[in-house]
Structures are given as structure tokens and as C-alpha cells.
Amino acid sequence: MQLGASELAFVLLLSGVFSTLFASPLLAFDLGQSTRCVTIPNQMKVCKDVGYSEMRLPNFLGHSNLEGEVVPRSEDWRPLLQTGCHPQAQAFLCSIIAPVCLDTFIQPCHSLCVAVRDSCAPVLACQGHPWPEALNCDRFPAEEDMCLTPLSKFSHFMKDLPKAVCQNCPSVEVAPATKTVMSALCHHDFAVTAKLHRLRHPTREPEFQVEGRVEFIRQGPLLPYDTQHLLRDWLLINLSCASALVRPGRSQLYVLTGSVQPDGNIALVRLFPWHKKDAGIALATRKWKHHRC
Ligand SMILES: *[C@@H]1O[C@H](CO)[C@@H](O)[C@H](O)[C@H]1NC(C)=O
Predict the structure, then answer these.
(1) What is the mean pLDDT of the chain?
(2) Phi/psi zone of residue 157: left (φ > 0), alpha (ψ -120 to 50 degrees), beta?
């Protein structure tokens, strides 16, 4: 078997023992049944850049019709994956819907499934969907089998970072008085200004973006380089909340205040849309430097 560089890189991510006889109840087909390898099509955005170029059909969901089933169903996962709910969410999902084309079948390990599920199921619930039965972690092999394992560097790296989670929509206060803004700045861990942008016709891009730089009024525990992504992830977790904040095809500058819980979860609490005429906000941000709460 010839491995391309990307396949090789992918295999290097795997650990565990290669077992020649690889059997599992999840396999929707037996190894005697004919399977085929195809190039992951460009339209299959969620797996196109997963790190290998050929996938096997039928996939682990038992789908064999590429144009009619595999590609369109893959789109169902985009709203979840674009939230960045887990750094291995894409590898996990694509190992099921677009399994790498090697001469053995490689499933995600039970432990990887659990790690991804624990991070992503709350986001999926926020978007109105239960964790699907097809991804029930009990169906995946323990690490003694050859399978896709969680990378410990990710779980270690992620542990203390501020993280966007599902929450109720924060309150939005239009044309606030200076003292209203000052009090929000005093009572929450962080305050930033950010321009929220909503595409009019989202096709491939996420519908919501954070335009330009995020400016800190009060940095608190937020990381300077990560906050733009953090806010974008937050917008993409509850799309109906985000939709209430900015109209299609528009951008809106906001002062966003919120807190960071000890586990790193952020909660946005009070939001102020900042229009040019809003003297109250401008004055508050100027006074803040010298203000004592
Ligand atoms: C998402 O936002 C909507 C709209 O503001 C809100 O009604 C809903 O409660 C939010 N969802 C969750 C799970 O918090």
C-alpha cells in the first residue's frame, strides 16, 4: 500500500495496536462486502481539509451514495464544527462519515468519542439537537484496538483557556447612560469592543464573523490573541441569539461585557450597541482609565 504524505501524517496520529482482524459492531458492512475509495469531493467542505484525500465508501454510517447522501448529510455538521467545540471534532466526525482509505478500517476510539462528545454535545443541544445515536460512544472500540485516539496535548492545552459555551442571550441595552456602562465595566471581568458582522448570504463561510480587531477596555483573563476567535465561536454556538444582535449584511460595533468562570467558560452579560451618536459609551470608555469602582 502506498501512503501519500497526508495519509502518512494521519496514520502517525493513530496509536494503538494494529490488529489484522478488525471487527466491531459499528461496521455497517462486513469486510467481505465490496468497498471503494473515492477522492473526498470539494463540496464535502467539512472533511475536505481533514488531512487525507481519499475516503472509503460505504462510510461508518452505512452510506454509500456520495452525491445523494454522504455529501448532503455532511452539511448537517457544519454548524457544530464551525463553533470549534473541540480541536479534534473534525477528525472524529470525518473518521465516521469519510473514513480514511487505508487497507484497514479505523474508527475513533471510545475515549476520543467521549472527549468530543463532552465538549460538543452541549453546543449541539444549544442548537436544538440531541447527540445522535449513531455517535453513541459505546459503539466505538477501546484503545487496545487500532483506533483514532485523543491527543493529550489538546486536552492539556485547552484546559484553562477561556472558552465560549451555550448560554442565554445577554441583555442588549441601547443608548446607555455613561454610568450604566461604567457600572457594567466595574461589575464584570472583561469588556471589549468588537464589530460583529453578519453575511447576507452565507454559503461556505460561517454566517457570523468578528470584523477587524477586538479592542480591550478591560482585558481581565482574556487572551489578547484569542479573543476574536472566542467571540466568533460564541456567536456561532447560539445562532438565534447572534441573529438578534446584527442584521443580515450588516456590521454592528458593540461593547461586550462578561465574566470568565473558573473552568474557563465565558458568559457575556451586558451588551451595548455602539452607534456614532452614543456619547454615553464614548465618555465611559474615556473615563474608565482613571475610574475607581
Ligand atoms: C439561544 O438564543 C435564543 C434567542 O435569543 C434564546 O431564546 C435561547 O434561550 C438561547 N438558547 C439557549 C439554549 O440558551
Answers:
(1) 87
(2) alpha
Mutation to probe ligand 1, out of 124, 166, 169, 265 (largest number of atoms < 8 A from CB): 169
Side chain identity, residue 14: L
Residue nearest to atom 5 of ligand 1 (CA): 241
Q: Which of 170, 188, 171, 184 is nearest to 281 (CA)?
A: 184
Residue 33 has pLDDT above 80, yes or no: no
Helices (H) then strands (E): counts for the chain: 11, 10
- Which pLDDT band holds residue 256 (cuts at 50, 70, 90)? very high
Q: Does ligand 1 lie within 6 Å of residue 166's CB atom?
A: yes
Q: Whose CA is nearest to atom 3 of ligand 1?
A: 241
Q: What is the rounded average pLDDT of the residues 209-227?
A: 93
Ligand 1 centre to CA of 235 (Å) is: 12
pLDDT digits (tens, 9 = 90+) for 178-201: 999 999 999 999 999 999 999 998
Please list the residues that pair with 193 across neighbouring strands: 215, 255
The pair phi, psi for residue 209, each rounded to 5°, is: -140, 160
Q: What is this structure's pTM?
A: 0.84
- In 177-254, alpha helices (H): 178-187, 227-237, 239-245
What percentage of residues in the chain have a pLDDT greater than 90? 74
Whether residue 241 has its Cβ less than 6 Å from ligand 1: yes
Q: Where are the domains of the chain?
A: 2-159, 163-288
Topology of domain 163-288 in CATH is: OB fold (Dihydrolipoamide Acetyltransferase, E2P) (2.40.50)
Q: Which tens digits make up the pLDDT trace of 155-168?
A: 666 667 899 999 99
Residue with the smallest CA separation from ligand 1 atom 9 is 168
User: What's the fold here for domain 2-159?
Assistant: Frizzled cysteine-rich domain (1.10.2000)
